[in-house]
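Q: Two folds, back to back.
A: First:
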Amino acid sequence: MRLTVLYFAAARDAAGSSRETLDVSAPCTVGDLRRQLSERYAPLARVLPRCRMAVNEELAADGDGVPEGAEVAVIPPVAGGAPRCRVIETPLSLDEVVAAVRAPGGGAVVTFEGDVRGDTKGRKVVRLEYEAYRSMAERTLARLASEIEREHGAAVAIAHRVGRLLPGEAAVVIACAAPHRAPAFRACEAAIERLKREVPIWKREVFEDGSVWVGLGA
């Protein structure tokens, strides 16, 4: 079957053209097309893992099918100031992560904010102390965001704070945007669950009578 593929920005440079018509075997998924493009253009193979794909002007996950005659766009990360995955020491802004993923094709934006609780199991929390292997943490956040974007077809932005935080302050903010609400909700849930499992950020809870590193017990 025949498809039209559009390339933008860094993807256009890597492919050497802004659009082309390709004949591919049917059935074809977005993931199949991504692999074929990686094999076709070696420079593009280095860019594609960070790109989203849109089919007929709607963001698509790798498992989505590509219909005959479709127009497929290869969309690199957009420019918009700060990177979409950050570990920072200053107060977080939910508006900033929303702005990082908001786009004309996104009909749904789902957000998550994780705040410091004032107590844990009946013990009053004085503060939390977050520590990170910062360079690795930001690379890991970028990787999992890219994987979630490909799996769910939703743009992902994450910011996590480190240092001393008081009860009520935000420790993490996440925004996910997709054409429809279901993939945006799934992407947001996947982002916080994977962040807690995979990203090298540690949390010490400080109480009035002691402290504990979360995960190691009292």
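A: Second:
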Amino acid sequence: MAGASPVPNIDLRGKVQRGSMRGMAVGQRRHSELLRGVLDLCLLTVIEDEPAYGYEMTKRLRARGLSMVGEGSIYPLLGRLERDGLVDTYRSASDGGPPRKYYRASRAGRLVLKRGVAEWQATRDAIDAALNPFQVEVKS
């Protein structure tokens, strides 16, 4: 892409961000905010068929392309999912350490997941339609 001008980083107010580090921070923040709204669905998805403990969930999320999600960000969410009755938990012995707490989607959790995925897909389709006029030309 020699000679191609870089795409400017634009903040939520429509202002061009100067400097790549600041622009990267804006992009990462936007990505985190988008993910925060659907991370519960992502967690329910990775434990829908097979229970998992926290670290194992982050590995499954990474395998699906969500490498920025760490254990520290999922445990508060797992606590909320448990309080809301969307996951069932049990403890099982681990190799050489304390028992691990496993999570699996409850019946209510599977219903919330099904509805949430449908809502996400409808929202995604509407956003895609709204952004459709904004085509980024990619030069090879």
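Q: And?
A: The beta strands are 9-10, 16-17, 87-92, 100-105.
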